[in-house]
Amino acid sequence: MKLEIFQPTIEQKHVLQNLMELYQYDFSEFESEDVDENGLFGYKYLDYYWTIPTHFPFLIKVDGNLAGFALVREIASEDSSCSSYLKICEFFIMKKYRKEGIGKQAAFQLFDLFQGVWEVAELETNLPAQKFWRKTISEYTNNEYVEIKRDHWPGPIQRFVSAKYLPLQSLTLLL
User: Fold this and answer.
1) Rounded to an integer, what distance in angstroms lies between the CA atom of residue 32 and that of residue 170?
2) Between these two residues, 67 and 162, which has the higher pLDDT value?
3) Is-above-0.85 flag for pTM?
4) For domain 3-162, which architecture applies?
């Protein structure tokens, strides 16, 4: 299977918007969001990914077919360990491609593309996501990551450094 990750143009925003509806439907078992009067969930932050330079949208294709998306942000750090970190804000792989290793491959490509400190957060109730991200990040980092909690987030957060960014012995300096 050939995996391709690319940034969609503004003209392709509707494609990501459509996939976002599938993602939010899947995610609705973990959050209590309702659809609007048009039967849509909507995503109020989507436009930011084409207007704010620290927001990065990606579409994911497998063998030329749409398979998912990722939304990545660079966020100013609140602590002195680093000036900013990268965060996967949303990540979606269509059910057809799950259990095929596509999510892991896509995550690895994103981690390699954006080198630096990363955080990936899951809701406490989203056990499948926790299992996926712990396994994926552990494999990517050779188990060199930490799991933290924050007062403003209801679930675990994995924090690590992209392997191509610094030698692994530098990890403890940033975490």
Assistant:
1) 40
2) 67
3) yes
4) 3-Layer(aba) Sandwich (3.40)
